Amino acid sequence: MASLELKQLTKKFGDFTAVDSMDLQVADGEMIALLGGSGCGKTTTLRMIAGFTEPFSGSILVDGKDVAGIPAYKRNIGIFFQNYALFPHMTVFENIAFGLKIQKLPKAEIAERVSEMLELVKLYGMEKRYPRELSGGQQQRVALARALVTRPSILLLDEPLSNLDAKLRVEMQVEIKRIQKELNITTIIVTHDHEEAVSLADRVIVMNAGRILQVGTPKEVFDDPNSAFVADFMGFSTFIKGSVKLELPDRLIVECSGHDLSVKRSVRDDLREGDNCILAIRSENIAIVPEDNMENRFVSGSNEIYAQENIVKGRVESITYKGHSTRVEVSGCFEENVYPAPNDYTGPGAGGELRLYFPSDKLCIYKN
Amino acid sequence: MRDKRSNPFCMIVAVLIMLFLVAPLVVIVIASFTPTALITFPPKGFSLEWYGNIFSKSNNFVSGLLNSLKIGLGATVLDIFIGVTAALSICRYDFKGKNILLNYFTSPMYVPSVCFAFVLLQVYSQVGRVPGWARIFIGHFIIILPYIVRNTVSVLHVFNWTLEDAATSLGANPVQVFFKVTIPLAKPGILAGALLAFLYSFDEVALSSLLSTPRFVTLPIRIMNYMEMSFDPTLAAISTLLILCSLILMLLMEKFVGLDMFMR
Ligand SMILES: Nc1ncnc2c1ncn2[C@@H]1O[C@H](COP(=O)(O)OP(=O)(O)OP(=O)(O)O)[C@@H](O)[C@H]1O
Ligand SMILES: [Mg+2]
Question: Is the predicted ipTM greater than 0.90, yes or no?
């Protein structure tokens, strides 16, 4: 119910810059996922937006107006704290009702809205318990309910689902998304989990050391990270060093440890012949070429592939069963080991040889 | 209890220690009912004479008690405001010398009360005409402050300040945050400190005996004076009443805060 804009927002603790000239525009009702390693300034950013700490410089605009002079309690920004911050002297009910009581709503309405929330976070019947009588995941859901119940115009969620089991987490994701869309709450959600970010958010931001590295739609950031760092963060597992051998209009030929790989050019790259580069690819995009198939015509996933290039021979080092896929460690292709992860691995065991195919449109290339 | 089994030797030692702690009290309580003018144990008969004696006007125990209560409660209440404010500013803000400030506020605890009384007497004689109650009140007000500061700090030291942020984000203004979150959570420490402070003031002898004037005497001083004149069971009776009061106070405290606050 409000748009949010950060302009050159900076926070320093002594000499240390925790958030560095951050620029960001969040549209009314948009959901943004903030991703980044531990200590990169995510919580600090949220605390500045909520008004708990003063920025060192820069400004925060809500609906186009600078909020610098507005005290935190008047900002109507809901926040879920990373450490939950439940009031230990209040029951679950009182915790959730706190904001509504401050607003002096009638008792009946408070009771109704709290029970609505309890239903939503699946804690019905626990309203009389104290936080210390709840499990970590239950506390987390109480904190979530408390942040949502006041229907804030901006919602800041600092890792709200980190403590839940996989099933509950997906259910809560759905609920958060539903409420957020229903009430049209502008939301920033911090998460360590790139899959959560991609499935929840309209846009994803990747941060490192207080700076924004990439902002984009989940698909852009997931499929086409703009740097090797972001690629690493977004779950790319295989990184290969090389140098550009030949520039063609639509692709580059990159030499990696004696093998030539053809890489589709992206709009971003400004690589020239002779430049050192890093190639990145997701495990699931590396295909294993069946050994008996000398024509290199095979099916990988749902695609029929006819590969003429980008096939490299290697040796299986280890095989790890991962449930939905199998992680195979392969050496000898390049200097670095590579990690294909087929759904259904039927190739040779450790020590055996196999051939891997690196699709040229799935390889991301970065300057090194 | 972690284990149901118990070592008989440990049991015996524990029982002996408890007896050792309680026995003198039991003796006093029983002796307070002696009909004779000399304390004898076991008492020969039963009488409430000495209890009546406490309340006889000429002995001034009641006025002493009232004086003690006035001083103790007044100083404690005033110190709660000052001590809690001090503790909050020390714990909430990060600034140079916060430890020095904490030590400053708790220093009256380490200064021998006789030295302290000596200094106060000097000041009073410089100022001149300080009323009797004020002479003792000022002394007590200063020496009991550390108990409130220390107990409050011990709670605030581990206080999760994000709780204040949480309340703020839910729309509570600073006053509401203070009364709905900070104070309720610091309350055990504040109450424990207040109780200790009050009890300290209530049976303080050294400072009071040096500062008091004949016209304004607290209960412990009155008891001491009485003891110098006579040694009849009135003292046992008054001790019994005081033990009873302490017991009631402890039970109330246990009910409202939990005694584990004192174990810190
Ligand atoms: N009050 C403070 N004083 C000094 N340094 C601080 C303070 N708060 C945070 N920092 C530092 O600022 C940096 C960013 O902290 P922040 O809490 O924003 O990280 P984060 O991205 O939320 O990390 P995490 O994912 O681990 O929660 C960290 O290096 C941290 O040590
Ligand atoms: Mg954080």
Answer: no
